[in-house]
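Issue 218. Parser rejects a valid record. Input:
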Amino acid sequence: MDELRLLPSVHAVLQQNEWDRGEKGIPVSVIKKWVQEEIDALRLSLINDSYKKERGRDQFLEAVSTSVRKKLEINGAYALSKVVNATGVVLHTNLGRARLSAKATAHVLEAASSYTNLEYSLEQGTRGSRHDIIEKQICDITGCEAAMVVNNNAAAVYMVLSALAKQKEVIVSRGELVEIGGSFRISSIMEESGAYLKEVGTTNRTHLHDYTATINEGTAMLMKVHTSNFKITGFTKAVSSQELLTLKEQNPELIVYEDLGSGSLFPFTRYGIGDEPEIQRSVAAGLDLVSFSGDKLIGGPQAGIIAGKSKWINQLKKHQLARVLRVDKLTLAALEATLLSYHQEDAAREIPVIRDIVRRKEEIRDQAERIKEKLSPMYECHITEGHSMVGGGTMPEVSLPTYIIEATHPDFGAAELSRKLREQPVPVIVTVKHDRCHIDPRTVDEADEAALLSAFLSL
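Output the parser choked on:
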């Protein structure tokens, strides 16, 4: 086919567009690959006679260049990119969950760009332990005797079970055999750890005598799992962790362990938001061990935090899994700065997760009015009352009152508009309902607002 001879070379496309030295931080090798892919696609469409546009050397060159330019507009040098979360879901798992505070971000930057005392004792001038970097901070905040950090809370659960209950029985209520995102099940992780699951009670009702009747010489642990992503209501009965502690009087070597899941160091209940148990109270009750996430309600980096009695934490630190599951200096820096804010309630409210959850409805309404005014008249906007979600499998029963901007464009349907917003240099993620794009300002801060307006108005 003669037309195939008119297809441009990779060099011709690069030279015509001055891409032979890279663009927007994207290496020229990547751009070359994109150019070759577009030429191959054009060749295939010509062979299949599916190319319906005007044909010729100049037209083919422009067609390839246009397709690659579009990729350059959508893609940066990095696959992981900043997005604006306009969905109102505070802990949006698909969008990276918690945003770090300014203090945490600054501390990460300092640690990343410098040598640190990660495993060096400045006092002794000898090798130190990375556990020491964060342990005192966790103990001060929660009131525990000792603590350590692993790379997420699933790892924390696995480590506790494997290190302290392998080939032994762990008693759990049937109503607490939870599954969280990614098909992570307590029963499955227990099987992988080598611990033997002993279920007691029923789905909706478990009594203290169910545990008492099941304890035997092979029992190592009583485990309580906070059902953070669902609620069972109605004819129910659950055994509290404090009640489980009474069983240690006859069985002093039993470990009473509670997986708090999301975990909370902030008094949300004082703000009338949910009934999430505070970590400090579980520690104060005398539990041997508790574990919780760092990147959910704590508002820090992805991490699993294990806190409790020194006797058990010291065993965990010496276990081989401690090295397998350990975190790096950047995680420790982010977590240390985040926890430091919890010494004062006002400082804790500067953590983005806390700030977004407790935002006043009136403040959100003012922001919604401001955004609406700037989007008009290009967009038809209506402000309605709505509800935001905490997200991340946390506080499923909580609906946070908010104001929603419902935006429509005269030339684009909602689905197309949503796609075009995702293709902007800073992608904007909205919710589409009833052929309208919904913007919830709860999760849009000042910097995000500027990027959101730029994305909408550029269309």
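Fixed in the parser; the record now loads. The longest helix spans residues 28-47.
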